[in-house]
Amino acid sequence: MNPRITRRSFLKTAGAAATVVASGALPRAFGVPVFARQSKTITIGINATLESLDVHTAIGPNIIGSRIFGLFSDSLVQTGKDGSLQPMLATEWSGDGLEWRFKLREGVIFHDGSTMTADDVVYSFNRILDPNNPQPSGFAKDFGRYVANVEATGELEVTLTTPTRDPLLPFRLDSYWASIIPRAATEAADPATLQFKPIGAGPFKVVEFRTDDRIVLEQHRVYWGGTSNVDQVIVRFIPETATRIAALQAGDVDLITQVPVDQITVVDGTPGIHSVNSFVRNYMTINFNTVKGPTADLNVRRALALAIDRELIVDALWEGKTRAMNDYLLPGIFGYDPDRPVFPYDPDAARAALEASAYAGESINFQATAGYYANDDPVMTAVTQMWRDVGLTVNQELLEGSAFLDQYFAGEVMTNLQSRGASGGDASLLFKDWGPGTLWVPAYYVPPEEFQELLVRTSESFDQEQRYADFRRMAAIFDEDLPFTPLYQNVDIFGIRDGIDWEPNPSFLIDFRPYNLNVE
Questions:
Q1: Could you tell me if residue 396 is left (phi over 0), alpha (psi between -120 and 50 degrees) or otherwise beta?
Q2: Strands 41-46 and 232-237
Q3: Cα(33)–Cα(22) distance, rounded to whole angstroms?
């Protein structure tokens, strides 16, 4: 047995109510006036590329689309930083079972100069639902499961009918893949043109898009939410980390995404720029195969979970920028328990669980896609050491993407590092991943019948007190069965030029609306 890992040796080696009526403005009120000033441009260096800006047909959801679609598009609602649902193009909404009614904001002007009506909203949603859409987005495939019909029930009111009672429908509309576009201008445009010059209602409008280079956007001066003092935004595609950081240091860009934690000191040590970080509604987990292999033994899974010192990982590998997980949900998600302690680190209990198991020294493969997650290699190395310390034989593998996915979809992965999204404000949006017919069921875990019954009840019930109790019971089932174990909440780290007043958003969005942007 290897000697117990120490902090020194470690340092050396190594993520709302369902019935809602909401109105009013977003935080830090809209309507910021335009003062006399010089023209100002912000250039963003982003870590990947996009092939299309048509929000209803672009492949997604994905992080890059989530980051920039909000620059030029608006949806009916959005989730605030505190997890509450907030008005956007809809000012209030209410549901009474199978129908949800949304009252629309007056005076919303699209980029083509037309004024938004209920007909534009109906057209937008029907475009998403269109079965003849040659390239539906990932969002569209889900959207059709939750929306049976959309109709205008007033000039500024739409009613959405759901196949079953759905307390979460407003949260499901919090997506830039559900953005509202003008019917007349869209029908008159060539579909190929819309991929390069989309027409939306957002704070900026696209004037140029080169897929291998940049997007240029100009201020939408009649934006319903007012205007900031930024006239132009340029998004440059710079996938290489070193090149992005160098561009920020040289003043070629003003904001960059995906700063690695080990480069924070480089950014902060350069005059005129600094780093800024934000928790996102997403966290890292280690998933276990409960169906076959050594991890099918519950005691082996207990040993694996108990052997991980999450707080040490946060401290040593993330420099305290993030937080160790204490629940299967994140703060701001309905169902979260703030009083739960951090998942326990107890190597002695891990050894005892291993001794109580049928484990006989078989190799446990620990896998992930190389380069996909920030800090993946050092985190996996640290966890591997912790597992070996309690007596497990572990084979750590970072695989090329397609090689990992071939094994993953075939149900052959034993343990793997993976992020788990908890977007939206309700636990059902995460727990649904464990429903029948999903990737993980039955290939990796078969939840008990009680879990599935609770999943159905929480997806249809409007009784928030009962739903919260049900969510806590579902979390207890995860505690008992251990299909996965959470590690730490993910963090989004940016580099930014001094003099830009802007805060990151927990949904990955680069939010340049006037309440969140000012340039000196």
A1: beta
A2: parallel
A3: 25
369 forms bridges with which residues in the sheet?
Answer: 399
Sheet strands (E) in 96-177:
99-104, 149-154, 157-161
Mean pLDDT, residues 259-276 = 95
Query: Where on the phi/psi map is residue 48: left (φ > 0), alpha (ψ -120 to 50), or beta?
Result: beta
CA distance 327 to 212: 41
Beta strand pairing status for 99-104 and 157-161? antiparallel
pLDDT value of residue 62: 60
Structure tokens at 465: 């007190």
Could you tell me whether strands 90-95 and 393-399 are parallel, antiparallel, or unpaired per DSSP bridges? unpaired
Tell me the per-residue pLDDT of 77-111, one tens digit each, with 9 for 90 and over: 998 887 788 999 999 999 977 999 999 999 999 99
**For the chain, how many helices (H) and strands (E)?**
17, 18
Q: Where are the alpha helices (DSSP H) in 167-280?
A: 169-172, 183-188, 191-194, 241-250, 264-268
Measured CA to CA in angstroms, residue 245 lies from 254, 372, 496 at distances of 10, 19, 10
Q: What is the pLDDT of residue 134?
A: 58
